From TrEMBL:
Taxon lineage: Eukaryota, Metazoa, Chordata, Craniata, Vertebrata
Organism: Aramus guarauna
Signal peptide range: none
Pathway the protein acts in: Amino-acid biosynthesis; L-serine biosynthesis; L-serine from 3-phospho-D-glycerate: step 3/3
Name this protein carries in UniProt: Phosphoserine phosphatase
Gene Ontology biological process: L-serine biosynthetic process
Catalytic activity: O-phospho-D-serine + H2O = D-serine + phosphate; O-phospho-L-serine + H2O = L-serine + phosphate
Length: 226
């Protein structure tokens, strides 16, 4: 296992940095916001807490939550226009600095493609660098499930995405940054995991992550030291 100093060295020399989105790049949990918007907020928030704690499989939690919400295409679009995701302070500067250094930035999320692509646009991240879950709709716009073939629909899916990125782009050093259990378990294949507690602190992640931060300024400072 890498020491904290070694992890900082990996981060400074990374070819690619993968960010979780909900409660990391943005302040909210997208699925909880969608649930509130559709009138089933409390029930779904409780399911999210259990999923984040790692006590149920991600796919089981996602299926159950979406089964309660049953969002229509129109509701998802209205949520994005009426309540756009709020970027976490410091993320815009950090992504910009990584881009300046020639580092590839990816958004790897158990959230929904339409919401995550909206976030990517704000951060100048190409949509090809977004890996997230896809909602399915019938022709009339009613909810028709989600694409279960996406790697991010499963526990361990973020690790599968990182393995794919390493194989496709021959990255030597990939860093994963996130707040939850699904982010931590992506290392390995990620070479370094940085726990983020700026929006919400997950006890399990705070206790187990060797490198735990609460503000993205801490990572900006690391980059400036080189």
């Amino acid at each position: 296992m890498a020491s904290l100093l070694e992890m900082k060295e990996i981060f400074r020399n990374a070819d690619a940095v993968c960010f979780d989105v909900d409660s990391t790049v943005i302040k909210e949990e997208g699925i909880d916001e969608l649930a509130k918007f559709c009138g089933v907020g409390d029930a779904v928030a409780e399911m999210t807490r259990r999923a984040m704690g790692g006590t149920v499989t991600f796919k089981a939690a996602l299926t159950a939550r979406l089964g309660l919400i049953r969002p229509s295409y129109e509701q998802v679009q209205k949520l994005i226009s009426d309540n756009p995701p709020q970027l976490t302070p410091g993320i815009r500067e950090l992504v910009s600095r990584l881009h300046q250094r020639g580092v590839q930035v990816f958004l790897v999320s158990g959230g929904f493609q339409s919401i995550v692509e909206h976030v990517a646009l704000q951060l100048n991240i190409p949509t090809a660098n977004v890996f997230a879950n896809r909602l399915k709709f019938y022709f009339n716009g009613e909810y028709a499930g989600f694409d279960e073939t996406q790697p991010t629909a499963e526990s361990g899916g973020k690790g599968k995405v990182i393995t794919h990125l390493k194989e496709q782009f021959h990255f030597k050093k990939v860093v994963m940054i996130g707040d939850g259990a699904t982010d931590m378990e992506a290392c390995p294949p990620a070479d370094c995991f940085i726990g983020f507690g700026g929006n919400v602190i997950r006890k399990q992640v705070k206790e187990k992550a060797k490198w735990y931060i609460t503000h993205f300024d801490e990572l900006l400072k690391e980059l400036e030291e080189r």
